[in-house]
Amino acid sequence: MSVRTLVKSIQDIMRQDTGVDGDAQRISQLCWMFFLKIIDDQDQELELLRDDYRSPIPERLQWRAWAADPEGITGEALQEFVNDDLFPTLKGLIPATPRARTVRSVFEDAYNYMKSGQLMRQVVNRIDGIDFNNLSERQHFGDIYEQILNDLQSAGNAGEYYTPRAVTAFMTEMIEPRPGETMFDPACGTGGFLTCAIRHMREHHVKRPEDEAVMQASLRAVEKKQLPHMLAVTNMLLHGIEDPSFLRHDNTLARPYISWGKDERVDVVLTNPPFGGREEDGIESNFPQHFRTRETADLFLALIIRLLRPGGRAAVVLPDGSLFGEGVKTRLKEALMEECNLHTIVRLPNSVFRPYASIGTNLLFFEKGAPTQDIWFWEHRVPEGQKAYSMTRPIRAEHLADCAAWWGGPHREGRVETERAWKVSAEDVKARGYNLDIKNPYTVAEDHGDPETLLEDLGRAEAEVAALRDQLKAILSEALAR
User: FRET pair for 373, CA 20 to 30 Å: which of 173, 247, 436, 468?
Assistant: First the structure.
């Protein structure tokens, strides 16, 4: 049975259970089970490689102890074991090691939704069929896991945690993270930027075991909500990260702005902060008066500017409102352009983040340390023959290839203005009151014809419609009179 077929069969079993209600709960249920299987496979490999290694999970709760035997515990006994022993123990696990802290953070807000021990045993048996120490099988499952994350787009509000792979990959490629550079995602969702950065560095820069160790030690991330945090941690294990405890279950914005010291500065920020929402009461008071707002995206932008060390670089997804907004948004853009070189803005169409968001979004690329001189804009367009992106026809990597080709070398040299690309000076932006919502000057407005002629045509059409309506009324009246 292929891994894809296996995962589908697991989901079909879960649909029979009365306790699992909807996609989000099913994915959450899948995730804690996958987590225990993946971490146990990883534990067994580490036990072979290191004499002193011990799993953070008590022996009786390890996957191999209760799940690996297909004829093992089932029915009410399994239900009681999971609800009364497994979950309470792992939720209360003493975080004596980073891996123990990871296990506890995954389970502290997790739940077992399944009510049938028999159905749960069927799910466990199928999951046990995947060997996560088999590299090819793990890579294949990685693709399936991406599809599971993609499924979140149709799971109500859970879709907010997913950024299209094409977008995360493009931003990562343009930022070019390297092992040893501290990379931070302050609102990491399911870990899409982290996995893209890991893949990129392994493909281009990791040549020795030391490089891998340095890369893993340089990752930083935070996620506020339980479900995406659990998905992200599992994602890290799936990508061979031995210690995903760097991925904290917390709210980055809950910490006072001024408490972030110089020793916590980072080299790279890749993120899609939540936007359009409002933070809980009191969060804005953690920020200086001139940056105080309840708009989440604005608070994240203010913090990112502070957290970058000199020479550090960032790629951030922001909505159109951040570009033209006034008040706090104006002060933020002024600070951004004074403290950083905002060198590129990629303007995306409204449909990139459908179905959970249908507003225009932008990719902002900037570097800390020198003020902005000029800003390059690139207008991304939906491919010809397609009106908009959708779940069935999403944005793909090749759709951004033209922008990647135009981007230029390490210092973005050789850029030229085209029908898709234009340059605006910082002075012009300041004169506009820091309004960055600058339209493509090379777009030719459609010629809809002479207004007088159009009005005449409209009048004739309305008259024809009225005449046809009168004829229809006469026919109906005659028919009713018979």
Answer: 173
